[in-house]
Amino acid sequence: MSLNASEFRKAMGCFATGVTIITVDIEGDLEGEVRGEVRGEVRGEVRGEVRGEVRGEVHGEVHGMTANAFASVSLDPMLVLVCVDHSARTHAHLHARKRFGINVLEEGQRAISDYYARAERAHDRAEVETGARFDRTKHGTPILHGSLAYLECRLHSAQDAGDHTIFIAEVEEVVVREGQPLLFFRGKYRKVGEAI
To answer: How do residues 140-154 score in pLDDT, each as one tens digit?
Structure first.
């Protein structure tokens, strides 16, 4: 029997998963603006402490990516993994930022999942198109309003595996809320059924 990518994808679709949004604070453009306008010393990250003409926290754009290749790895230390395609924009952001959030979607957040699953999207349209709103953690990582759970992650290691990279991260903080998860099975969104 010869295996092809379509059959492999179909088999993997039989494994029901939850749906997450990986969120990263992107400060690339802001760094350029701050460097050009601020005279004085910049300590730490740009969104951290800045001495000069700009004070307080400076946050960049919220970048997000829908992912269901996510799993727990270890309890001690608390580690999770997420797999990201090498061609995805998120891939470079995770390497560069080394900090990200994992937002486990609630069953009513399908539109947010669809939005961040698109290859081309304007990140500033998330709230207008889907109602997605974000707060920031003390590290500046975006946290999605209404998600079922949120994990604040710091990159631990990265391992290339075929056309993806497995990003392993240490979980530094979690938020858990009541509700039901958004599920994905055989290429379609689902809801949790009755307990058996």
So the answer is: 999 999 999 999 999
Instruction: Express each pLDDT in 54-64 by its tens digit.
Output: 233 456 788 99
pLDDT of residue 54: 29
Pick the closest to residue 122 from 58, 63, 48 (CA basis): 63
- Specify the amino acid at residue 139: H
Indicate the Cα dihedral angle 138, 139, 140, 144, nearest 10°. -70
List CB contacts of 21: < 8 A, sequence separation 6 or more: 64, 65, 66, 67, 102, 103, 105, 112, 113, 116, 144, 147
Task: Extract the tokens encoding 141.
Answer: 């990582």
Q: How far apart are CA 80 and CA 21, in angstroms?
A: 14
Dist CA 172 CA 48 (whole Å): 18
